C-alpha cells in the first residue's frame, strides 16, 4: 500500500510538472542511482557482523556523493530547467525507491539469517 501511494504521488507530480520533464527525469534518475548504489553497498552479505556499521556508513557516503555529484552536474550543464522540480522529484523518487528496496530485502532474505 505504501509503495502504491508513493507511486501515485510521484505520477501525479510528474503530470503536473510536464513542462519541466527534463528536471523531473534528472531528479528521478539521480535518486534511483544513488539509492540503488547505497543499497548495494550497505546491505552486502557478509560473514563478519562487525562490518555492518561500516557498510552502512559507506552506503550513506556513496549516496551523498552520487546525489551531490549528479545534481551539481545536472544544474551546471543546465540539463534541468527547474531546480525545484528536480529536488521534489528526487524526494518522491527516493521515498518510493527506499520503500521498494526494503520490501525487496524483506522478501528475498536468505534462510540462514544473513541478508
How would you describe this protein?
This protein is an all-alpha fold and about 120 residues long. The chain has one domain. About 75% of the residues lie in helices and about 0% in strands. The protein has helices spanning about 1-15, 20-40, 50-75, 85-105. The longest helix has 25 residues, at about 50-75.
Question: How would you describe this structure in keywords?
Answer:
115 residues; mainly alpha
The coarse silhouette is flat
Total beta strands: 0
Question: Between the first and last Cα atoms, what is the distance in angstroms?
Answer: 24 Å
Assign a percent range to the helix content.
over 70%
Number of helices: 4
Biggest sheet architecture: none
Q: Provide the residue-averaged pLDDT.
A: 82
- Structural classification: mainly alpha
Summarize the structure.
This protein is mainly α. It has helices at residues 2-16, 21-42, 52-76, 83-107.
How are the secondary structure elements laid out?
Elements: H1 2-16, H2 21-42, H3 52-76, H4 83-107
Helix pairs in contact: 1-4, 2-3, 2-4
Amino acid at each position: 500500500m505504501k509503495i502504491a501511494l508513493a507511486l501515485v504521488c510521484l505520477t501525479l507530480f510528474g503530470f503536473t510538472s510536464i513542462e519541466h520533464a527534463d528536471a523531473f527525469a534528472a531528479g528521478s534518475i539521480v535518486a534511483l542511482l544513488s539509492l540503488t548504489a547505497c543499497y548495494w553497498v550497505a546491505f552486502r552479505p557478509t560473514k563478519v557482523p562487525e562490518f555492518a556499521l561500516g557498510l552502512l556508513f559507506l552506503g550513506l557516503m556513496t549516496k551523498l556523493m552520487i546525489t551531490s555529484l549528479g545534481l551539481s552536474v545536472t544544474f551546471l550543464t543546465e540539463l534541468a530547467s527547474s531546480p525545484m522540480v528536480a529536488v521534489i522529484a528526487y524526494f518522491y523518487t527516493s521515498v518510493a525507491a527506499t520503500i521498494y528496496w526494503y520490501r525487496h530485502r524483506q522478501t528475498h532474505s536468505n534462510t540462514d539469517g544473513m541478508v
